[in-house]
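Quick review question:
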């Protein structure tokens, strides 16, 4: 049982790391130059081949997964580091600081589905931009336009 728990924890941490890495890459400033490894084949083509219900399921699953992964990662980080921190105010508590960095998606799922469909439709050469980059770019804290994302990824 202990081995199963450790395996689950390791897989969760790997998923969290990859999610946070994608979010970090996507949340860099507009003037930052994306690295070639951010792009990969076919996310846009796959997206455009999905039916509307498939896209809606993807959006809800993606947002839930990112938010759950972030929350779990913050909680694990807090569990590991809590004894090491001497904080003077609630804002300095590591879990509070971590949770403030979470991507927010307050709009209806259909908004994100339409934005991603619109982006991949408008910019066929950008269909190699991963979903995670687009989601982070249109999250509440970023709110980039399609044109801004296209220009940012062009450099």
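Suggested answer, residue by residue:
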């Amino acid at each position: 049982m202990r081995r199963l728990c450790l395996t689950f924890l390791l897989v969760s941490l790997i998923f969290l790391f990859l999610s946070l890495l994608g979010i970090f890459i996507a949340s860099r400033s507009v003037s930052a130059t994306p690295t070639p490894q951010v792009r990969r084949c076919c996310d846009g083509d796959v997206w455009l081949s999905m039916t509307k219900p498939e896209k809606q399921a993807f959006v809800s699953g993606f947002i839930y997964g990112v938010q759950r992964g972030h929350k779990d990662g913050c909680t694990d980080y807090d569990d590991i580091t809590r004894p090491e921190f001497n904080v003077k105010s609630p804002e300095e508590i590591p879990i509070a600081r971590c949770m403030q960095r979470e991507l927010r998606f307050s709009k209806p799922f259909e908004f994100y589905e339409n934005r991603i469909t619109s982006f991949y439709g408008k910019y066929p050469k950008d269909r190699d931009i991963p979903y995670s980059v687009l989601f982070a770019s249109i999250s509440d804290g970023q709110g980039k336009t399609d044109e801004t994302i296209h220009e940012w990824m062009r450099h």
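Why it works: Residues 40-154 form one domain. The radius of gyration is 17 Å.
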